[in-house]
Recover the amino acids of this structure.
């Protein structure tokens, strides 16, 4: 399965109140692919993602889906195509897993339709997909961080959108959960052709799991392309201001960034 | 687009869980029974306890000249009125709590009650207004202006109308308006007398006339509340997630607050400010059925009606041969129960 949505950002300028964060970004999201936005803390990754998801109104430029500005779509119609998981969503206490996942069905329900068979199926499938069916009746507060994150992603899956934006879906998770979440998202992408755009902080996992990388620095797009082409020592120096050595990942053959600090270098008097 | 292969046999049970809170039908039945019992008590009990025969006479308009039948008929309108007030306050409470995402929000928290009071006292003092039909418009205007004002202040600065800013703006406004109310009232003995009774909150004056004024507002408010329940469910996940799900948070807040203001303003106009019902009804129900607003809104309405009517009966019994206004009773019943609720860790923050 695949989708044919064209999602473009042209000459985008956006930010908060009178503070401009994104200074003119142009990009087109590769269809049916996993894209990862990388960049230093505070460089504007979340702001970019939020502007692309209509949470922030651009001050200049356009965000378009299939040639039409996203704010021209009726909100629910857009929400059936484009889903979003923000960086740190609010968990209402006392809500059960099934209830939370079910709330992802909102854009598919009309005023009087209530819950259809399709809604139940979508919720059940999303929970199955994220392996959380056994928690269905538990309160969210009874879950661990990793389980909770799976619930949130399941909510986004229940929305059944062709495009999915996720802001740091792996923060606060241990390495095992990080890999598991990324595997599950890859499953989703391979099985249904879902176009995924996410912000990740682990550059090596990004290199491994991304089909396409967007590198952002100070609100500008400084590089994009396949990880193998883009992730060089130079780029890491530009984007993160970090010296490093890039070697092939023994598992995936993608670039593996080995950071170089001031200490614990074999010859500390050497290159700095 | 996502397809499930093995729909297991217990999937039916899971479906029910998503749809309705656990034991929902049982809770609903218990609620309805309590409602019936309360209504029955409200018709029968009071300064004069009526007999079964008198109750029947009153209900079915026989033996019109018997004193008992008359008492019952007065109590019928009073009971219906108090049910209306309870429903209105219960729903206004859930709406305010959802919109501000503050579990302790009551209509009074946005200063809406006080704004309504201020306009009524101005009407009484300076324009010698004294009928319910006039109170209602003053109270509504006062409630609406206050809500707009509080919303305006609460939306200033970063991030728009955040829950915390709304609550702070409401508390400050409420305090300022209360002192205005007192300042206007004190020099005028006429206003004092008129206002004193109204200010406590009482359903004793509930007549078919006031019910007739009440109904259109009540129906409008209830419909808006029920229709916006699914969207409010999404809003509970935060403005960002809600927007991602296709909700317009600003517009939704506006409509929900309007409905809350109308419900609470009209109740305040007709019965005077009655506190705690919104808070109490919603919290009690949230503990039992959870946070899903599609169920919480109607159940809070039911709980509000029961609690208010029950409080009125208690007021009549305690105050006999006169009566204690229901506003005093709800404060007495409400405060300790609220403290109890707050102490139990299971009280949900939103
Ligand atoms: N709500 C807000 N109001 C005003 N400024 C904000 C707001 N959110 C973020 N900013 C500012 O915008 C800049 C970019 O923030 P953004 O959240 O986009 O960074 P980020 O790249 O996602 O960082 P991180 O990796 O830490 O998540 C920061 O300087 C931040 O201080
Ligand atoms: Mg961020």
């Amino acid at each position: 399965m695949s989708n044919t949505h064209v999602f473009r950002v042209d000459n985008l300028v956006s930010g908060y109140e009178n503070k401009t964060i994104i200074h003119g970004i142009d990009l087109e999201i590769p269809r049916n692919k996993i894209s990862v936005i990388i960049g230093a803390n505070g460089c504007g990754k979340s702001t970019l993602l939020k502007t692309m998801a209509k949470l922030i109104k651009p001050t200049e430029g356009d965000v378009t889906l299939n040639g039409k500005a996203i704010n021209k779509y009726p909100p629910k119609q857009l929400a059936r195509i484009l889903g979003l998981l923000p960086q740190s969503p609010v968990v209402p206490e006392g809500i059960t897993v099934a209830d939370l996942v079910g709330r992802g069905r909102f854009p598919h329900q009309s005023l009087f339709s209530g819950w259809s068979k399709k809604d139940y199926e979508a919720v059940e499938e999303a929970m199955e997909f994220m392996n959380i069916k056994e928690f269905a009746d538990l309160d969210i507060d009874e879950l661990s961080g990793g389980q909770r994150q799976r619930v949130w992603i399941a909510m986004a899956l229940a929305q059944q959108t062709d495009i999915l934006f996720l802001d740091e879906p792996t923060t606060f998770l241990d390495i095992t959960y990080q890999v598991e979440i990324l595997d599950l998202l890859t499953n989703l992408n391979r099985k249904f052709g879902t176009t995924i755009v996410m912000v990740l902080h682990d550059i090596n996992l990004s290199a491994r799991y991304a089909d396409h990388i967007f590198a952002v620095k100070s609100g500008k797009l400084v590089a994009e392309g396949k990880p193998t082409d883009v992730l060089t020592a130079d780029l890491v120096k530009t984007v993160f201001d970090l010296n490093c050595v890039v070697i092939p990942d023994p598992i995936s053959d993608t670039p593996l960034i080995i950071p170089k600090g001031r200490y614990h270098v074999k010859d500390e008097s050497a290159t700095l | 687009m996502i397809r499930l292969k093995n729909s297991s046999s217990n999937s039916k049970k899971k479906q029910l869980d998503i749809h309705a809170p656990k034991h929902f039908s049982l809770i609903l039945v218990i609620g309805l029974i309590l409602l019936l019992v309360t209504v029955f008590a409200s018709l029968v009990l009071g300064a004069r306890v009526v007999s079964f025969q008198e109750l029947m006479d009153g209900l079915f308009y026989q033996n019109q000249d018997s004193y008992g039948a008359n008492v019952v008929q007065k109590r019928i309108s009073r009971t219906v009125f108090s049910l209306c007030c309870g429903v209105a306050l219960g729903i206004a409470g859930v709406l305010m709590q959802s919109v501000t995402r503050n579990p302790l929000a009551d209509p009074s928290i946005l200063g809406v009650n006080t704004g309504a009071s201020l306009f009524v006292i101005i009407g009484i003092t300076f324009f010698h207004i004294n009928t319910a039909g006039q109170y209602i418009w003053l109270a509504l205007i006062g409630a609406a202006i206050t809500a707009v004002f509080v919303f305006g202040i609460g939306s200033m600065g970063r991030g728009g109308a955040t829950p915390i800013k709304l609550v702070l703006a409401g508390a400050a406004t409420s305090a300022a308006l209360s002192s205005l109310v007192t300042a206007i009232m004190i020099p005028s003995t006429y206003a004092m007398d008129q206002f004193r009774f109204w200010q406590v909150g009482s359903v004793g004056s509930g007549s078919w006339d006031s019910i007739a004024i009440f109904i259109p507002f009540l129906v409008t408010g209830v419909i808006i509340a029920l229709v916006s329940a699914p969207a409010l469910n999404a809003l509970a996940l935060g403005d960002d997630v809600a927007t991602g799900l296709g909700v317009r948070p600003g517009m939704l807040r506006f409509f929900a607050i309007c409905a809350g203001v109308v419900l609470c303003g009209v109740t305040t106009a007709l019965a005077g400010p009655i506190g705690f019902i919104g808070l109490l009804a919603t919290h009690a129900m949230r503990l039992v059925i959870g946070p899903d607003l599609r169920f919480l809104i109607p159940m809070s309405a039911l709980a509000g009606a029961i609690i208010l009517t029950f409080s009125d009966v208690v007021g009549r019994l305690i105050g006999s041969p006169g009566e204690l206004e229901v506003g005093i009773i709800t404060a007495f019943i409400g405060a300790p129960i609220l403290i109890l609720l707050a102490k139990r860790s299971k009280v949900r923050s939103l």
Q: What stands out?
A: The two ends of chain B are 32 Å apart (CA to CA). Residues A 45-46, 87, 167, 199 surround magnesium ion (ligand 2) (CB under 6 Å). DSSP finds 14 helices and no strands in chain B. The CA atoms of residues 118 and 180 of chain B lie 7 Å apart.
